[in-house]
Every structure is written in structure tokens, then in C-alpha cells.
Amino acid sequence: MKRFKDKLSLITGGSKGIGKAISLGLAKESSDILFTYFRDKKSAIKTKEEIVSLGVNCDIIKINLSDISSVEDMTNYIKDKYKKIDFLINNAATGINKPSMDLTEKHWDFVINTNSKSPWIIIKKLSEIMPSGSSIINISSLGSIKVLSNYFSVGISKSALENITRYLSIELSNKGIKVNSISPGIIKTGALDSFPEGSDVRNSEIYQTPAGKPLEAKNVSDLVNFLCSEESDMIRGQNIIIDGGQSLIV
Asked: Number of C-alpha atoms within 13 angstroms, CB side, residue 104?
């Protein structure tokens, strides 16, 4: 029997890149899937079709996670319709890829709302319908602890997300809910195309890891599945770096 049969997973930003790999990985273990997307409906529908082909149910929700009132409306909708969430993966992220001195307050609010505030609100609201043994995983970034060019807004927001992880791991422990975060190394996805030429994340050397191969989205998906499993029960409030050892040498 697959590990996650009769479970429901919510993945924000689950239609492309790392989020898609996470959605498919959970579906392959028989979890039903609910994922959000922002703009690209075509990719969302394609990912949904791939998930359904694995023999599980899949629903999709279009949402702008920087709009906090919409986030609250979404959580109310999910609570009313689905009644239960077993695994919550806060994966969706955005960034204004410029140095800090070139950012505006509007930029700050947009990124912080999407990457930090909305995950907190989603956890706060949906933890009410998460049973004992459920798992919350926040997808962070090595930019939370390393200074990368044109990465200020993302790095700051991910630092906040990791602290949200630690605090809520304790606050939700009495409900039997695990909370952890994952910081992947650089993975070649379409999201990197938005960074200016010469940015650290576009340096080809950063993909060369001591593991002898580049990090892939599936590696993150496999770690998510482990953190959702009973085998990870004693891992709480941790930020797990998965990067093939690259952060040890760069």
C-alpha cells in the first residue's frame, strides 16, 4: 500500500518547478492533491492531468498570495469544502530580483506577503483542520543564510519563514503537527530566468556539487515525502539543507 493513501496534501505554487515535483511525488504515494497557482493556468491544468493520471484526485486554486484577504478567503473555502488537510507544503515564492537599495516599500510588501506572511496565515487557519500526525513543510532557500546578489527580498523573506517554522513547531506540537522547513540549493528551473545576467544564482559553477551531480527538484520531493512520513516523527522545527554539499564549499 502506498504511504499516503486517504491523505490530502495542499501545495502552494504546485504547478511548476519544485512545486510540481512535490505535487507529483506526493501523488505517487497515493495522496490526493490540492495545489495553488498564480498566473499560468495552462501549466496548472497540465500538471493536474499528470496528477490525475496517477490515480488520485486533484483540485487547483488560482490565487495571488500577496493579497492577504484572498489568502484568508482561500483558507475558509478549503476548511468548508475539504474539512481536513494532512500535509501542507508552503512552496510558492516570489522575488524582486534587485539590490536592496533599488527596492521600494511596495516591492517589500509584495515579497514579504507572498513568502512569509501568507504561509503564516495559511498555517494558522488550516492547522485547525489538520489531525495529529500531519505535517507542515515550508520551502526556504540558502539565500536565508548566504548573501546572494539581487536576492535581498527573497533572502530576507526566507529568513522569516525559517523562524516561523521554529516557533510554530513548538506552538503546534500539542496538536501532534510536525513543522519543518527545507532549504534547497540552486535548481535549474524557469524561476531563475528572472534574475539579471551575472547574478550569483546564474553562475554555472554553483550547480557543481560535491555529490558529483546537480541538485534536482525530485531530490526535494523525496525529502518532502520523508518529512511527511511517520519515520520523520522526531524531526521538529528543523531547517534541512539539501544541496549535495555545495554550501560547504561556496
From this structure: 3
